[in-house]
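INFO  loader      accepted 1 record
INFO  loader      residues=330
INFO  predictor   begin
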Amino acid sequence: MNSIQKILVVGGNGFVGSAVCRTALARGMQVTSVSPSGKPFQTPKGHTPGWVSKVEWHKGSALEPETYKHLLPGVTAVVHTIGTLFEKTGYKSALKDGNVPRFLSSVAAGVAGSGAGANPLEREEKRREGSYEVVNRDTALRVCEAFLDSTPTVETGGPRAFVYISAEDCTRPVVPAGYIKTKREAEVSIERMMLNHPGFRGVYIRPSLIYHPHFRPIVSPMAALLDLSATVHAKLPAGFPTPSAILRTLGAALPRPAQAQGALLPDTAFDAMARALTIPPIHVDHVAEAIVMAADNKRTDVRGPYGVKEMRELIGWHQKGQQDASGAHA
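INFO  predictor   done
INFO  writer      dumping tokens
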């Protein structure tokens, strides 16, 4: 008889975290969430879905393990969903509210505030609170350290998974390089921690643009354009002068990043833009499905980085598309 698996979702009331909670419940898992507010998930319109009552909601800070470490022995996997595209701009609330002007101004503020000419006092404030280093990297490392220090009190059936939500490197230069750099720093640091802990495994989910037509309608037009671009690029013959190929050519003409940064960001912003044109966006439900499959202790083969292509293979997305097509022709 298989024991019931229980996962801890850090940031379970957020956009990605809530999708993970719902998907895990649908797969028969028990779910606990930890977030700064501890409040249950609500839709952008203030509705509370029925599945919310099945999740244990706890208040805690990822940077303060004492607020959640008592939960770690009783879980079979941890999913870290905390992250920020822009430092301290309020873009998330604008996305949630569907406020286009505020979202655009937040993005502009995020890009302008990340430059070398930004106010030193503002940079110091971001470094203390809401910075890429703190939100994208340090929160994950604190949670991972506490998880590795915990002794399971439940049957695990294999290495316990720590699933970190990272990203494809396809957002530069619209999103400052600090975003993807701190994501990669977190991946590298977590993997180093795992070396001395055979009872655990690290999985790094790397989505592209994540969309949902109802929860984030602002993103839908961009998602449609990027999906069209990826489809067109995939169908054009090799050697055709596509926009992505031109961008890669421009990138090849520029000097490579310095050795220290090159290990994390091995190419230029032109290459990142080229990837943005060829990697399709991904629905938040598909991201959640890949995360939950990675957290499943029966899937001990799932470890390391998973980009959009690997995520689709993991959830059988291509097979689903073929089955739908064959059903339509039948």
